[in-house]
Specification:
Mean pLDDT of chain A: 97
Distance between the termini of chain A: 46 Å
Largest interface: A-B, 56 and 56 residues
CATH superfamily of the largest domain in chain A: Translation initiation factor eif-2b, domain 2
CATH topology of the largest domain in chain A: Rossmann fold
Helix content of chain A: 40-55%
Shape of chain A: globular
Low-confidence stretches of chain A: none
Structural class of chain A: alpha/beta
Oligomer: homodimer
């Protein structure tokens, strides 16, 4: 049956447009349960992004693009030729779903730009075409990033990755894990050490699941075990994704990335950031301007569905941090590689 | 009732000798449940140490000392004047319970030394006296460490601590938390940031519970959030305990400590190790010689009683790491403070 094939739960099927609905592989329950959440409104899509049904900057952008299609469909159904009057609110909901990943805003802007050329007729066919293009372009960008990044890895070596910047976080294939996949195919990677990535455990839940799927040797470790592993001398690269890169090359990514960058520098290990150019925000001068999402303290004070900390204790839960460009060895994008990024080099990349 | 008072669950009552039995506050279930495990054999005591009913290097040493008393009681009951013939096996069990904390071996050696002077009569009274002395001396050492460490903190400032080096980890009062308690009393500490300390969550479970008990402001954070907090400039010190310090000043402590030391150095933050001299192992030249316990992978692949990682994935679970002396600002002991430790300075301290 066609439906079951399109909606087969696999790392490369995190975001699926199928028979006029948006399906998200519900990443909150992986790897224990692999099931799709079906969405047909922009509001439900925004809620799913907030709730981390889908996560990862490029995947959030793609999801938001499909969310705009859902918004347009509802707007045209309710207001016909006057659909523009009804689309602002759902678009605002989508934009407010999460603050840090710039791909979200980038995708909504691109969809808005596409709307400009439309008349009073049904906007859905044109917008769906644009959303599918965003999705396909991201998938292609990941392949290019994978090739470019892999070419820079002299191996075989072991690597550390943090959080999940894989197929699940993108339109497919992955950014950091795309580089790792390509490098592994080329025989340049022995084993991947996946930081578990508290508090959401994207490393042990998602990255481990993805790499097992791909047959790439993977070992999970606690986030704080990375330093001791680096000291053994067996790690050649730290490879991560990004949620937003500022115009000077500062990199926002999952909490813990900054520590890894400092540790990599201390141990003389390369630090590679793999991200599509849709993650680069040339409007922000530096990482200090990137809004860092702080989520509920309960995510830190609980784990695996159980309360951990004592009642009444405070917790901080910033879910991203900023790595200064000076600690970044390489930013690998689909347009090319930036070594030791600076504002000048970033401008050159972005044209 | 006297029993209920002696066995009141509180951070200062982690290890209690009461009415001829050893009671351990079961730290596996704190803070959700505060209850004592009652032990009356050395074998059960060794198992409790292995299972982390009690943890923290000084507390393990004290527990082992009481375990030797239990071993002697059984040996004398079964063999009378020939009790020495029956005590070796239970002492070996105690020594094999965990590998890294040297206080365990130190306490057993001290108890063995105490045995030498005994004749064929019941050894229990003399050995119990020695175990109680070890316990009392540790408590007193913690107070001294607290005062010496606190005197070096110019405040008020916020600090980071890792794992639990508090009353629960010692004979009472605590090493790192002893310094923090004394410094807080002196008005030199604003807030303590407690790393949650995966995989056992000693920070969010035990340190948070202890500091709430003491009325010291505490905020829990994931281990990987410490770096971003240091970058804000509001952290004056990182203060930790230790499980074993080598003759050159290298420090073994809970996994993640080494990362904190590198990060503290990068951010120009002082890194203080608070530990009694029973933690110093002058027989080991450097940290490279310290045996690092690797526990079951399941501790990493689960949390809060729930499985997290996918079936079939590998995990590494080294539960300690080694911080080179060059990254340590201060080692604070009950005999005095060693600044930027070296082998020469450590020898001077240990006489």
């Amino acid at each position: 049956m066609e439906t079951s094939k399109a909606l087969e739960p696999s790392p490369d099927n995190a975001v699926v447009w199928h028979e006029d609905r948006l399906y998200l592989l519900d990443q909150r329950y992986l790897p224990e349960r692999a099931s799709f959440l079906s969405l047909d409104t922009a509001a439900a899509t925004a809620q799913a992004i907030t709730d981390m049904v889908v996560r990862g900057a490029p995947a959030i952008g793609i999801t938001a693009a499909y969310g705009v299609v859902l918004a347009a469909r509802d707007a045209y159904r309710s207001r016909g030729a006057d659909w523009r009057a009804a689309i602002e609110l759902p678009l605002d909901l989508l934009a407010a779903s999460r603050p840090t990943a710039v791909n979200l805003f980038w995708a909504i802007e691109r969809m808005k730009h596409s709307m400009k050329g439309l008349g009073e007729q049904d906007p859905v066919p044109a917008l769906l075409k644009e959303a599918l293009a965003i999705h396909a372009e991201d998938r292609a960008a990941n392949r290019t990033i994978g090739e470019l990044g892999a070419a820079l890895i002299e191996g075989p070596t072991d690597v550390i990755t943090h959080c999940n910047a894989g197929a699940l976080a993108t339109g497919g294939y992955g950014t950091a894990l795309g580089v790792i996949r390509s490098a592994h195919s080329a025989g340049c990677i022995g084993r991947v050490y996946a930081d578990e990535t508290r508090p959401w455990m994207q490393g042990s839940r998602l990255t481990a699941w993805e790499l097992l799927h791909s047959g790439i040797p993977v070992t999970v470790q606690t986030d704080s075990a990375a330093a001791g592993l680096m000291a053994t001398g067996r790690i050649g690269w730290v490879i991560v994704g990004s949620d937003r890169i500022a115009a000077n090359g500062d990199v926002a990514n999952k909490i813990g990335t900054y520590a890894l960058a400092v540790l990599a520098r201390y141990h003389g290990i390369g630090f590679m950031v793999a991200a599509p150019t849709s993650t680069i925000d040339m409007c922000l001068e530096s990482g200090a301007d990137i809004p860092i999402e702080e989520r509920d303290a309960g995510e830190v004070l609980a784990c695996g569905g159980s309360r951990i900390g004592p009642e009444g204790v405070a917790a901080r839960n910033p879910v991203f941090d900023v790595t200064p460009a000076s600690l970044v060895s390489l930013i690998v994008t689909e347009r090319g590689v930036v070594e030791t990024p600076t504002a000048v080099k970033m401008r050159a990349l972005m044209g």
